[in-house]
Amino acid sequence: MPSISRGFRRRDRGGDPSRLPPGQHLESGFPVLSAGPTPRVSTAEWSFAIKGALDAPRRWSWDELRALEPDAIRCDIHCVTAWSKLDTEWDGISLDVLLDGVETDAAFVTAWCDGGYTTNLPLEDITGGNAWLAWGYDGRPLAPEHGGPVRLLVPHLYFWKSAKWVRGLALRADDQPGFWEELGYHDRGDPWREQRYQGD
Amino acid sequence: MARAALPGRLSWLPARIAAVRRETARARTLVLDVERWPGHRAGQHVDVRLTAADGYQAQRSYSIASAPGTPLEITVERLSDGELSSWLVDEARPGDVLDLRGPIGGYFVWDSASGGPLLLVAGGSGVVPLMSIERNRRLAAPAIASTLLLSARAPEDVLYAAELDGATLTYTRRAPAGWTGYDRRIDAAMLTQVAPPPEARPRCFVCGPTAFVERISQDLVDLGHDSALVKTERFGATG
What is the CATH number that goes with domain A49-193? Predict the structure, then answer.
């Protein structure tokens, strides 16, 4: 039974409530949450790799990645700290393109990043048109504090899964907890099932 | 690798407001009675959920202000149009109830085993989790050196003013009459003067608004501090 807080009532914040997962509220700004200093990454030295349990590792330089046909992505995003932002617009490339033709027995991936951040995801959550590498936000290059030059974009999961400053994916058979998952956050993080913490 | 501390299911726990303390015109500290509260580490936060009489619910995260082993306290600053913060600051009275779950967060934490020296840099209400850390240090490890550097807009915005002996304050909009201290945004020169040098390997905790944290954490890294020792927490204004 929830405790009724005397005198508390809803404030209409606008927007379409059917697009808000349970426990979320609308946010018009774009808050930043990171555990440490923002890494400064030169695109000249940047690359993206897919390695681990696959037939042959793959790697793209910044120029090689940008030479691929980009997608314009419009999506709602949901942070575990209970804000959601609707109709965000990104430029990037579908992970389906980067994983196309890969032969693997893996069921999970660990994304790794500049600055040491990691997060774990089921492989099926980042395939099938569900996930991108994003380098543009709102028509501009992705700002470093938001994960630039490139971040993962997995909008159907809580936003800590959309790892900032991402540098690669390791494909693996087992689910290995990442940075926040090790500290008690959920391994999958589906906002519609309110999977914030382990056990949710 | 085994999980550091698998907490099991984090259940919503009923909490009773035992006391309300006025910190500033816009901020209150709520002392919370929670049965079966498992205890917390300095720097952690809780999720607070309020339920209206019609069943409407909303939740936000709030930093814990009190030291481990002392009564659970959160400090809340009212945001304009803040759905929860308005209730917590303007409405909440002793005896009122809410739900919370936690403690949450295992990275932005410090205990005496984490060692020192400590460098705590706060912008505005970002001082809340840092005060939990500082209070813990004073209780559990007073021999560990600590530097507390606070940026506030004006004197009436300063939280925990009675506990800031030895802290360095800077006022970014209006300083008190006769003030001879800093009256600008925290910058690299100020950090060089106030903070332990990088060679002392201070454990740095930076908390405040996004732009503040971005700037300070970058300054610290540029001054030679090990980025692995710089932990950040950013306050999004989200109600």
Answer: 3.90.420.10
User: A108-113 and A83-94: which strand pairing?
Assistant: unpaired
* CB spacing of B87 vs A2 below 8 angstroms: no
Which is it for the CA torsion B140, B144, B145, B150, positive or negative? negative
CATH architecture of B112-234: 3-Layer(aba) Sandwich (3.40)
CA distance B30 to chain A (A): 14
Cβ pair A65, A48 in contact under 8 A? yes
For residues A179 and A154, give the distance between their C-alpha atoms in angstroms, rounded to a whole number.
Answer: 17
Q: Which residues of B124-149 are buried (b: 16+ CB within 10 A; e: fewer)?
A: bbbbbbbbbbbbbbeeebeebebbbb
pTM as predicted = 0.91
Instruction: Please report the sign of the dihedral spanned by the C-alpha atoms of residue B180, residue B181, residue B187, residue B191.
Output: positive
- Taking the Cβ of residue A37 and every Cβ of chain B, the question of whether any pair is shorter than 8 Å is answered with yes
Q: Which residue has the tokens 């001054």?
A: B223
Q: Which CATH number fits domain B13-104: 2.40.30.10, 2.40.50.220, 2.60.40.1930, 3.30.70.640?
A: 2.40.30.10
User: Count of CB atoms within 10 A of residue B35's CB?
Assistant: 8
Per-residue pLDDT tens listing for chain B (239 residues) = 344 444 567 899 999 999 999 999 999 999 999 998 999 999 999 999 999 999 999 999 999 999 999 999 999 999 887 899 999 999 999 999 999 999 998 899 999 999 999 999 999 999 999 999 999 999 999 999 999 999 999 999 999 999 999 999 999 999 999 999 999 999 999 999 999 999 999 999 999 998 999 999 999 999 999 999 999 998 754 44
The whole-angstrom separation of Cα B64 and Cα B34 is: 13
Q: Are A182 and A165 in contact (CB under 8 A)?
A: no
ipTM for the complex shown: 0.86
- Residue B100 β-bridge partners: B13, B48
Q: Is B177 on the interface with A (CB under 8 A)?
A: no
Residue among B12, B61, B232 minimizing CB distance to A34: B232
- Kindly tell me the sign of the dihedral angle through the C-alpha atoms of B164, B170, B176, B180: positive
In whole angstroms, give the CA distance from residue B130 to residue B136. 10
**Exposed, middle or buried: residue B162 (CB in 10 Å: 0-12, 13-18, 19+)?**
exposed
